Amino acid sequence: YYFPCQRWLAVEEDDGQIARELVPVDEAFVKKDSENDGQSLATLGLEQKAKSTTYTVKVKTGDKKNAGTDSNVFITLYGSKDDTGIVSLKASKINKNKFERGKVDEFTVESVDIGDLKKIKIGHDNKGNSTGWFLEWVEIDAPSLGQCLKFPSGRWLDKSEDDGAIERIIFPAELQTTEYIPFVPYEITVYTSDIFGAGTDADVFIVLYGNDGICTQQKSLCLNKREQRMYFERNSVNQFIVEV
């Protein structure tokens, strides 16, 4: 079995995850072929995307005194077929200091197919200067499934508050579930010209148009400012796998 990764495991890189669940792929994808290497890597990205689900997890910390936490927060997603295992929520896409009072933090969680999402377990390790945490809600969006679920909490995860629990199992609120047309992964290859000043550090985005003028949402090709500086250099070819 071959489990290629081709991704960072770093808080400051990619989607910020420091653990990855890898899926097995056909042997042909890992055999080095100088003529076809770029193509096989791109196809590999699509193959892996097709076998996994990417979840956008938003976490709202309540607007109460001492609601924020410095502890390490983790989450487990439970589906009808399987669960994700424990996932550490390390790098928020929105805030440098995560889980602060009244703030919403956003994380990416990737997993193989766990089926329909049934419940979550979220908690912390009770370490740090300020450990207690008031969790308002969790929202989980799965674009490839076309579903967004809200998990209301409104309770403390604190050894000295409420019932003293520092982890909770939460079920989705049916009336707050949103369903939409599932997203599809595309392989995008961008060729930057070989003329003076051709490269850019700007936020490059793409919109795809189909029949009758129906189009996708605007999608940035880079995940962060570091990638913006790294890609789209003069005389370069950059490949991206994006869900739109």
From TrEMBL:
Its encoding gene is what? Loxhd1_0
This protein's GO CC annotations = stereocilium
Return the SMART domains for the record. LH2
Biological process annotations from GO: sensory perception of sound
Lineage runs: Eukaryota, Metazoa, Chordata, Craniata, Vertebrata
Provide the species name: Atrichornis clamosus
Pinpoint the PLAT domain residues: 1-23, 53-171, 184-244
PROSITE patterns from the UniProt entry: PLAT (PS50095)
**What is the name listed in the Swiss-Prot or TrEMBL entry for this protein?**
LOXH1 protein
The record's listing under CDD domains reads: PLAT_repeat (cd01756)
